[in-house]
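Question (not urgent): is this output format expected?
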Amino acid sequence: MAEAAAEASRFGSLLDSLRPLLLDVGVPLILFYGLHSGFGVDDLWSLAAGGIFCALRVLWSWVRARSLESLALLVLIVSVVGIALSFVSGSARFLIAKDSLGTGIVGLVAFFSVFSSKPMMTQGLKPFYTRGKPERVAAWDRLSAAGRLLRLERRCAAIWGGLLVLEAVARIILAFIIPVDTMVWLSTVILITALSWAGILTGILTQSAEALINEDVASRARPGTDSTPTAAQSQAAL
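Got this back:
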């Protein structure tokens, strides 16, 4: 029962973290084909409607939360600048390619964060594996402070960074080769594929993180037991 509740909690936190992405991908797709195929609106305006939605969603979140995360700010800037430049150039293809600016920047930041003491993926992995439980958060902090999760975090950052950069490059190239009607949905498929592979590889790599956290929490629950795994134990888990 407890395992089922924990799994449900993890799924809920994952869904919450993916909701903005689902909105930013799904709604523009619906708007494009709805306006273009249903009402005969041209490619540029149909695509721009999706970009305007993304910008308005970020602004609404900003007003509601009275704070703006760096990723949300990037989405807002890319949407506004991309729409403006697309209307100046008159190119719907440019409006498709501009999405690569956002994913490309995020990918580069993630990749180069591998060389820092706090890789970019740390903020995403921590809530997923701790599930908001104080004892698991404390275990993560202890293991992280001891450097025992750093190699995993760096590997995950490299995977996400590399795949997002590849996704961005592929979209830019294909945006000026493939017909616009096809590229609108294909762009989404490319993004989902990159994110799916990143998620699968991250899940495989971070199974040892779950084991380390469980071990740390269990050892803390046993009186008189040293709660910190030895270097050999951590190395074996990783």
